[in-house]
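Researcher: Here's a chain I'd like modeled. Treat it as a single chain, no partners, no ligands.
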Amino acid sequence: MNFPSKLIENAVVEMAKLPGIGKKTALRLVLHLLKREEEATLSLAEALTNMRTLIQYCRHCHNISDTDTCAICASPTRDRSLVCVVEDTRDVLAIENTAQYRGLYHVLGGIISPLEGVGPSDLHIDSLLNRLRETGISEIILALSPTMEGDTTAFYLTKKLKPYNLKVSTIARGIPVGGELEYADEITLGRSILSRTAYDV
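Model: Modeled as a single isolated chain. Structure tokens:
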């Protein structure tokens, strides 16, 4: 791809490093920014710079935050006996959007994946155990993806949590609403049968 300017080329190269953005899309975005008023582009650049340099991680749950304690951990209305363990901030956002959960969170910062060189020591597991020693937590909910790595992480955490005499639960897994049984894989269908619930009329 030929560029009329080295400055444009540099911007396109950087923009194309974002996930899901190819060179053509990056060029379109760069040219769009160039057409906008200078203040708008500078405002975007400032927002990105501030995000990268000023963002913090909650000292309790490791969620992304503007301060050293996130809004969820600081809220007096949350149920402090419940902690939902998730892989990353995207999972916190997904669960919060359901408006069905009122407990606290603990963000692991990943899941155990030997193939990618991620072991238990690379995750925020020790800080989770420290939280259990200091607070009145009675239940841990493991909300991890139903993958081999997610199940490995859940198994490891369950063993680590055993000495604390807590209730350890996991999110239900099964057929999605609107899904057809014939298209469900055997593992999901099997788990749905095992985790069946009473049908109330």
